[in-house]
Design brief:
The complex is a heterotrimer. In chain A, about 35% of the residues lie in helices and about 15% in strands. Chain A is built from eleven helices and nine strands. In chain A, helix 1 packs across helix 11 and helix 2 crosses helix 11. The longest helix of chain A has 24 residues, at about 285-305. Chain A is globular, with a radius of gyration of 19 Å. Chain B is an alpha/beta fold. Chain B has eleven helices and 18 strands. An eight-stranded mixed β-sheet of chain B has the order 3-2-1-4-15-16-17-18. A five-stranded parallel β-sheet of chain B has the order 8-9-12-13-14. In chain B, strands 5-6-7 form a three-stranded parallel β-sheet. In chain B, helix 6 packs parallel to helix 7 (about 235-245). Chain C is α/β, with parallel strands linked by helices. Chain C is built from five helices and eight strands; from the N terminus they run E-H-E-H-E-H-E-H-E-E-E-H-E. In chain C, strand 4, helix 4 and strand 5 (about 140-145) form a beta-alpha-beta unit. In chain C, helix 1 (about 20-40) packs across helix 2. The relative contact order of chain C is 0.20. Classes of the chains: A alpha/beta, B alpha/beta, C alpha/beta. At the A-B interface, helix 4 of A face helix 5 of B.
Chain lengths: ~325, ~425, ~190
Amino acid sequence: MNKHLLSAADLTREDALSILDTAAELARVTDRAVKKLPTLRGRTVVNLFFEDSTRTRISFEAAAKRLSADVITFSAKGSSVSKGESLKDTALTLEAMGADAVIVRHGASGAPHRLAHSGWIEGVVINAGDGTHEHPTQALLDAFTLRQHLGELEGRRVVVVGDVLHSRVARSNVLLLHTLGAEVTLVAPPTLMPVGVDSWPCEVSYDLDEALPGADAVMMLRVQAERMNAAYFPTSNEYSRRYGLDVRRAGLLADDGIVLHPGPMNRGMEITAEVADGPRSVIVEQVTNGVHVRMAVLYLLLGVADAPEEAAE
Amino acid sequence: MITVLRDVRPYGEDAVDITWSEGVITGISPTGASAPPQGARVLDGRGLIVLPGFVDLHTHLREPGREDAETIASGTAAAALGGFTAVHAMANTTPVADTAGVVEQVWRRGVEAGYCDVHPVGAVTVGLQGERLAELGAMADSAARVRVFSDDGVCVSDPVLMRRALEYVKAFDGVIAQHAQDPRLTEGAQMNESALSGVLGLRGWPAVAEEAIIARDLLLAQHVGSRVHICHLSTRGSVDIVRWAKERGVDVTAEVTPHHLILTEELARTYDPRYKVNPPLRTADDVEAVRAGLEDGTIDAVATDHAPHAREDKDCEWAAGAFGMLGLETAFPVVVETMVVPGRLDWRAVADRMSVRPARIGRLADQGRPLAVGEPAHLVVVDPDAVWDVDPSRSPSRSANTPFLGRQMRGAVVHTVLRGRPTVVDGVLA
Amino acid sequence: MTAADIHGEGTGAPAGARVLDADDISRIVGRISHEILERAHGAHDLVLLGIQTRGVPLARRIATRMGEIEGVPVPVGALDITMYRDDLSLRGARPLHATDIPAEGVDGRLVVLVDDVLFSGRTVRAALDALSDIGRPRAVQLAVLVDRGHRELPLRADYVGKNIPTSLEQSVRVRVQELDGVDEVVVSG
């Protein structure tokens, strides 16, 4: 496994399954009275969140704490990060504190890549979302959730709908689901598809009603209504009508088909309240699964980082 | 003081001895025909090629305002090491070079530094704001004798303003050098728009934003009977459009940077802002197109767009990085590697693209001249086969943002002579 | 069966001396089953937990044999101690195996941990830590197939299949039918 987790493309099929299997075992820890494991005791994990994100930050904090790591959180508001201190200076400060792993969310695509390769820090870098580039642990928890409901993902059809152009979740999911053998179809208006999407390992469609029937899962991406001001679509009503997931469309899925959403949701925009709260929705599970998947990632990456070659028992 | 450059090959042709004094070439004779006069300074040209001193149509010297990144002295020293005897200093300084006062200051500082001739470029619009014409006439009449005007850094996007500017400079044989970039199509752009930008999550700078402005401006120039110059051409479409226009007799000239001759957008995968530049590095197909354009003369000149940046402006994440790369000291070897070695340009053609035509576009009467008796002694002596590594710590430039860091270059400047006075001898500042 | 037997057939078979064969192991399972039941005065509050990985099939066999002896099923489960190891930075992250605690749980019961080889004692220490996070047994005992010495912690087994003194350079390989297709213990080096 690579030292850092910057992109879903960093993971081979074996790596991904290893993370998912480990996460599955760790999930059972939460059934116990004592939810903590001593595995990362003495290690320091830093949450470096330049972008506000309560949900992901708390998920990583919980994951690190459940492994008994020491957790330090730098978040955008109220720290020197917001005073304009550069990424480099922040990184050097963390290094001076002895961070074993840095979990970074940043508004600029490639910021985690810079942290990992600039020589500013020694520790493991985990990308918690960089600009419009990637969000690999989100893709992992999505794959985990899919696997729990659908079993092995080989040949399963997953439809991803929404603002693909600006979505790091979409990019990571396309890569990871392809690695795991699933068939992905991206659906969005042409203005919200990235240039060159035809070269991605997935199908592309502008028609949700045509793409949905028989799909094993649909993943709705958040769409900001403000995008209509930049002429990506004329009005939010037109967007919802053509690309929103309502009860009728949810009914087009396979019988055991499920609905995912990385959150936060724009209820009424890309997904109706009925579907979000409905029987096919696994949105709340995704959040729970996020902690277990992130525990697995921390365990496996911090284990790799220091270890010499495989030693015999 | 008489100087003799011995056993050197002009344009790579037969070896000669060249003699000059008081800044003018006084003799060219077959090498070894006669001994140098008593007391003459002798420069050794054995195995080397001599060309007219290079002229850069596009340099950023940053002074006044960003002396932390470069000064006129440090930038022209780098230029001399690159074989340049004249550079055009772009106007996006602080304050902007939009008045006679600022351009005269820049011109004078260039004279004081003495490494090469500095020809200030005047801004087209006041403060580069794109709203009102700057006093182009005053700048033309000033001691700096400005003939090239550019808002480089930003595009003159208002078509009416561009038309007026094209018309206005006809009065003093000036030229508008356009930085072709439609601002609306490139808001927030970070790299070339392509499949790669989609994968990397970096907002794209589509080729059409360059091509559409070029098409508009050369049609405008034709309509008003003016000449126009296109800065840093970077795409196949741009080359095709300029070629089409030249075939129809439009008075358009164009330049290409060394980095666009050799580097591609693939470097963005590193997310290292060292490779961030405007216009962005393009695809391999675009690189091939600009090489072909330079070869057939559609592109008239190699212009470095030397853009120094302070370390903190590059030592960061891509989105926070400034646009621009150094180029003065590496221009020649890039041309050797991409155009001379593959046989696309011979040495006369190199002289044409790096000296003769840029001097003509800038209306520099004393630069880009033939190597002949009676001509000014602006010379560059090069070793086309020397290999060397790029090491910013050994450069006089105040900045280190070269995209060729650690790369081995082929082709070195050995001597540079400005008006008869050597500024560089044996690869070192004189 | 002598220490000089060399076992060299098939791929992946360790060269070395086979010290226990399938019959030996079967007898040991029987003996240990009786010993545990004797000391515990029956199986009424017994729970067997095999330590992953090879302790698990051994624990199952002991539980089955006990069930035959006592006539009642004996709860048996699996304990994975990977996350409790103290050598993460030395050895790297290993894949996890399942932890299955029987429905009866461990609180107030006699837990017998079962492992294949007792060596430094660190695995057992990790197992005790894992067990204390799961519940509070009234007592914990340890049964091992092989004790090869070289303890690094003050721990001992309550039930030992065979004491095999070894040097540190030697390795002891236990193979079980359920995972490896054969029952044997081989010492090599």
